[in-house]
Amino acid sequence: MSHSVFFRGPRRRTVVGCTLLLITLAAGPVACGTDGDPLAVHPFDAADDISYNAPDDNGKKADPDKPLEITASDSDGRITDVTAVDSRGRYVAGELTADGSRWHSTSPLAAGTHYLVRVSIEDEDGLPGRKLLEFDTAAPKKKLLNVALGPEAGTYGVGQPVTAELSEPVKDKASRAIVERSLKVESAPEVEGSWYWVNDKELHYRPKEYWPAHATVTVSSSLAGVKVSDRLWGADSKPVRLTTGDRLIAVTDAGAHRMTVYKNDEVLRRIPVTTGRPGYDTRNGVKVVIAKQPAVRMRGTTIGISSSSNDSFDLMVYWAARVTWSGEYVHAAPWSVGFQGYRNVSHGCTGMTTGNAHWFFNTVRLGDIVQVVNSRGKQMDPFGNGYGDWNLDWDAWSKGSALAPDKQGPSAADRARLRPQSV
């Protein structure tokens, strides 16, 4: 709303002097103000000294597309402080001119929200005035942007990324910055972390290093009612609380045909394995357990092998921990026991004895790290085939944030740059 509403009311301007009081009250001396300090008097009602561009009490609501402006209407007075907060406890950032004549908000107002604004001024005599303003903003008229935070509440391994799925695409960098500032990830203990825009509708969050063991991670959004773009307004989102378990990392050396499982940086078990044979080489890099299935039917046709090929297969596999959506698992492979520890003969999965697979299945949880080194296979993709997030080093990952100082997104070279192969 472009008009300004001026509040008029009785102004308290006269300060009664001590001399007058002494004459009127001859019983004895009376101090001015509190403890003799004329600046400690009770603040006067500053309604007559300010104007602002929000509606009065006629039932209208403020336009959230426009900044809040508060002006000192008396040329001899000045605004000293403005605090604006909404019903959700979110503060509104703003700027005050050097001469105190005007304050305006610099962060967007939320739609469909009640605001409480405290304004402090000084008159020409330096006496303090106060005014409490209240108003409501109009409800959003555009499309709502819903954010689904993940994963669902539970306990995960130290490699589990946090995810945010958007209901509408957000392409503009300024709009992305608004979204990202509204997404909060807090952990105890505290760690450095950042969001990465995987695409226009998906963000991932991870720390610089793996999450600490036995950490608590809380994910929330304050996007409700916030204008994201001309067509989008933020909607409510359900917060998520996660915890992490022990630091469990399984490192498979495809060249040595052996998996070493570490728990809190100590060796828990060494397991003879077989990985992908030539033409079906297991991917190198850091992967995360994304699913666990006690039994799963595996068919060659699901990975592009013709049913008429000599390489075709169709069998039930047990104690399977999945690490890629394309079909790479750690599982029991009793048919290849004679090759485990000596030769790679699988179609890309990591196979081991049924006993070891059962132990591994019961030991790992979703979010635990499975890392492959010394394979002739290609590198694990950072995105799109499970959680390959850790295969980007921190510098490359940080560039994927809309809040990064360098506004250019990560290059193809950045995306291909891998973290050091270490546990």
Explain what you see:
The chain is mainly β and 423 residues long. It folds into 3 domains: 5-136, Immunoglobulin-like; 143-244, Immunoglobulin-like (Sandwich), CATH 2.60.40.3710; 248-390, L,D-transpeptidase catalytic domain-like (Beta Barrel). The chain has 5 helices and 29 strands. A 5-stranded antiparallel β-sheet has the order 1-3-4-7-6, with no helix packed on it. Strands 23-22-21-29-24 form a 5-stranded mixed β-sheet, with no helix packed on it. The longest helix has 10 residues, at 173-182. It is elongated and about 95 Å long. The chain starts with a strand and ends in a 7-residue tail after the last helix. The model is unreliable at 1-34 (pLDDT under 50).
Ends: how far apart? 58 Å
Proper CATH architecture of the largest domain:
Beta Barrel
What is the helix tally?
Answer: 5
Please compute the radius of gyration using only Cα atoms: 32 Å
pLDDT averaged residue by residue: 86
Low-confidence stretches: 1-34
CATH top-level class of the largest domain: Mainly Beta
User: Which homologous superfamily in CATH is the superfamily of the largest domain?
Assistant: L,D-transpeptidase catalytic domain-like
Roughly what percent helix?
A: under 10%
Tell me the count of domains: 3
Approximately how much beta-strand content do the residues carry?
35-45%
User: How many runs of DSSP E, i.e. beta strands?
Assistant: 29
**What is the general shape?**
elongated
Which fold name fills CATH's third level, the topology of the largest domain? L,D-transpeptidase catalytic domain-like
Helix-strand category: mainly beta
The biggest sheet, with number of strands, parallel, antiparallel or mixed sense and barrel status, is: 5 strands, antiparallel
Q: Taking strands numbered 1, 2, ... along the chain, how are they ordered across the largest sheet?
A: 1-3-4-7-6
